[in-house]
Write a structure and sequence with these properties.
With about 300 residues, this protein is an alpha+beta fold. The chain is about 35% helix and about 25% strand. It has 2 domains: about 90 residues, Phosphorylase Kinase, domain 1 (2-Layer Sandwich), CATH 3.30.200; about 190 residues, Transferase(Phosphotransferase) domain 1 (Transferase(Phosphotransferase), domain 1), CATH 1.10.510.
């Protein structure tokens, strides 16, 4: 594991033999915060994610996120540049050095357009969705699921290529639940780690004997696609109003009528948002369907919804 040396007077530190200087705070959550830092050797900007670890379990979870990053070298999955564990008195911080994407998240792009009264056109949605699917395929092919896919966990690089981030909730793709105690444990874990308005129906009330598989990500992907099409997730407003998301996701989603998008794209989204996980496509099938949705030659008519 790398070592960090913080020289607070200069706001500089080193990780794995490379020195960086703090620039500004980018954001923070309940248990972590992200700073913009600059490499003193290469002059490049990076995002430094600092995870607060109060006990051994927190340290274990932070190192799990590190290990998940190490599994992948894929253009659609955020690459871990370096990491270390820093002592802060009786506590620790896990520092993860990550690439900095100046454009920000997919959500910031959707929100900016929505504030202007417009939405992502289909010709922009398709390559973004395709890139997300390729990142998910890499995760699923290694026997894992992301479990917290949402627009704020998708970065866009300078070429608008989507990059999946926040791998801390990743776990094995296939979870065999045997008994009510294990079902409750999985349900409680999902309540803590899977964002409620993008959480698959089967994770709200876990059956005593069932199999949870990677198609929880397909449901979340359907919600992400809905957000790109309509400016917010299908269950965001339900959550904001204080109504029951757990109840809402048990019923088929009503898709608002729109003439902006093809019927095929709407049908693809509906297949992802099937309440029964066994009816959702696997990621390989989605990729096949997306390839078929590539823009038609000029002059060829398409049916819109």
């Amino acid at each position: 594991m790398g070592h960090a040396l913080c020289a607070c007077a200069r706001g500089s530190f080193s990780i794995e033999g490379q020195r960086y200087v703090l620039v500004q705070r980018l954001g923070e959550g309940g248990f972590s915060y992200v700073d913009l830092v600059e490499g003193l050797q290469d002059g490049r900007f990076y995002a430094l994610k600092r995870i607060l670890c109060h006990d051994q379990e927190d340290r274990r979870e932070a190192l799990h996120e590190v290990e998940m990053h190490r599994l992948f070298d894929h253009p659609n999955i955020l690459r871990l540049q370096a990491h270390c564990m820093v002592e802060k008195g009786s506590k620790h911080e896990a520092w993860l050095l990550l690439p900095f994407c100046q454009r920000g998240t997919l959500w910031s792009e959707v929100e900016m357009l929505r504030d202007k009264g417009t939405f992502l056109p289909e010709e922009r949605i398709l390559p973004i969705l395709l890139g997300i699917c390729r990142g998910l395929q890499a995760i699923h092919d290694k026997g894992y699921a992301h479990r917290d896919l949402k627009p704020t966990n998708v970065l866009l690089d300078e070429e608008e290529r989507p990059v999946l981030m926040d791998l801390g909730s990743m776990n094995q793709a296939r979870i065999e639940v045997e008994g009510s105690r294990q079902a409750l444990a999985v349900q409680d874990w999902a309540a803590q780690r899977c964002t409620i308005s993008y959480r698959a129906p089967e994770l709200f009330t876990v059956e005593s004997h069932c199999v949870i598989d990677e198609r929880t990500d397909i449901w979340s992907l359907g919600c992400v696609l809905y957000c790109m099409m309509f400016g917010e997730g299908p269950y965001d407003m339900i959550f904001q109003k204080g109504d029951s998301v757990a109840l809402a996701v048990q019923n088929p989603l009503r898709v608002p009528p729109s003439s902006r998008y093809s019927a095929a794209l709407g049908q693809l989204m509906s297949s992802m948002l099937a309440v029964n996980p066994q009816e959702r496509p696997h990621i390989s099938r989605l990729l096949e369907q997306l390839e078929a949705l590539q823009p038609a030659p000029s002059g060829q008519d398409t049916t819109r919804i």
